[in-house]
Amino acid sequence: MRPSFGGLAALLVTAAMAVLLGDKTARADSVDTGSVSNIQFKKVVLDTRFVSEGIAVADVNKDGRLDIMAGSAWYEAPDWTVHEIAPFQKIDIQRAWSTSFHNWAADLNGDGWTDQIVIGMPGQKAIWRENPKGESGHWKAHPIWRSACNESPLYVDLLGDGKKVLVMGYDDSKMAWFEPAEDPYAEWICHDVSEPGGAGSQRFSHGLGVGDLTGDDKNEILTKDGYYVRPEGDGIWGYIETDLGMDCAHMLAHEGTVLSTSAHARGVWQHAPVDDRFETRIIDETISVTHSACLTELNGRTNLITGKRKWGHPPGVDVGSEEPHWVVRYELVETAAGPKWERHMIDEDSGVGTQFEVADVNGDELLDIVTANKSGVFLFVQSAR
Q1: How sure is the predictor about 385, in pLDDT bands with cuts at 50, 70 and 90?
Q2: What is the Cα–Cα distance from 280 to 16, expressed in whole angstroms?
Q3: CA 176, CA 190: separation in Å to the nearest integer?
Q4: In 10 A of CB 115, how many CB atoms?
Q5: β-strands 266-274, 277-288: how paired?
Q6: DSSP 187
Q7: Minimal CA–CA distance to 211: which of 199, 203, 219, 201?
Q8: At 38, is the pLDDT very low, low, confident or very high (cuts 50, 70, 90)?
Q9: Which residues are within 8 A (CB) of 350 and not within 5 positions of it... i.e. 6 or more apart?
Q10: Using CA atoms, how far apart are residues 5 and 73, in angstroms rounded to an integer?
């Protein structure tokens, strides 16, 4: 289905993007194949309230089934019964924001029960909530760090040692990674990546990723203005300045290139190395406000999954803010003319938040998608046609 954009507005946006990207922009083939695919998703609505912009998947109650956590609530499989993690706070979704932008699941105190990591509004503190081990009542909150900056912080295996850490800016100044202290209830240990003023470290910085761009089997930390290179020992990371596109959300490394999506304008891009720089290639210039993305493999092919965030700013502020809230996937296919990204519609009335997950929720060995935003909380269950 083609979007119902105003023709003039779409032309103006396209022209503006061409001016901004200049001669560094090429077009990566992208075709909307609609439902022509051997992959289908069934939408399950878990909640119509706005509880979070981020979401996590984990076995919360140790019954062997994966549950879903989103901000102040968790949803118990298989019927998705809702339970409170923290008191629900109703807000004006057109003018206010969540206190839960990013969620992850991990057993942080080693008691065998999965806890919840929560990052709220950019610049505010990061916390974790302790699973009450089947007891009733709200989960107790504990500190992680005083300030979580950049709008796309990450919880990833940065060092390649099998341990996930938080990667984010702090204090509007430094890029860093954080690991739990020996005392699980203490603030986490901060490892500075940058000096003050580091790229991507400001409160509302757009664009952050982790991946191996240099081929040395070590992860770099990616920002839209360049990337940090891990040193041999401890200490400040080196920094390579390079243009990796406009303001974006998650930056995903794929075979030496970087995939990114526009946080508040239009655009899905691939940035490929050409000589001593990166060339920006347009995958899709129609969908807007794609404020989160995941890269995964579906049916043996690489897929970039993203969607439209509902009212990242008040209605009318972001380009295309009132257009349908899609969830889409771009499948990388090989053709006689070379690789192409084929767009497939997953849903036209839900969208994504600032962070979502792809996981096999129901245990059928097919990856599903879970999202949360101002439209509610959703599960997209995959089935092979």
Answers
A1: low
A2: 15
A3: 7
A4: 23
A5: antiparallel
A6: P
A7: 219
A8: confident
A9: 43, 307, 325, 327, 371, 373, 375, 376, 378
A10: 35
Backbone angles phi, psi at 19, to 5 degrees: -65, -45
For residue 119, pLDDT beyond 80:
yes
> pLDDT tens-digit profile of 284-311?
999 999 999 999 999 899 999 999 999 9
Phi, psi of 177 (to 5 degrees): -125, 150
Inter-residue contact 308 to 353 (CB < 8 Å)? no
- How wide is the angle at C-alpha 371 spanned by C-alphas 366 and 372, nearest 5°? 160
Token pair belonging to 372: 């949360």
Q: How many Å apart are CA 8 and CA 142, to the nearest integer?
A: 51
Percent of the chain exceeding pLDDT 90 equals 86
- Tokens representing residue 329 in the block: 């996937």
> What is the three-class DSSP state of 169?
strand
- Token readout for 65 is 């089934």
Tokens of 182: 């020996």
Q: DSSP string of 231-298?
A: -SSSSPPEEEE----SS-SEEEEETTEEEEE-SSSEEEEEEEEETTEEEEEEEEEEEE----EEEEEE
pLDDT value at 246 more than 50: yes
Helix (H, G, I), strand (E, B) or coil at 179: strand
Sheet hosting strand 368-373, strand order edge to edge: 39-47, 376-384, 368-373, 357-359
Question: Quick check: 314 pLDDT over 80?
Answer: yes
Checking if the pLDDT of 103 tops 90, the result is: yes
pLDDT at position 11 over 70? no
Confidence of residue 233 (pLDDT cuts 50, 70, 90): confident
In this model, does residue 340 exceed pLDDT 50? yes
| Amino acid at the residue 42 | K
- Side-chain-side CA neighbours of 8 within 13 Å: the count stands at 0
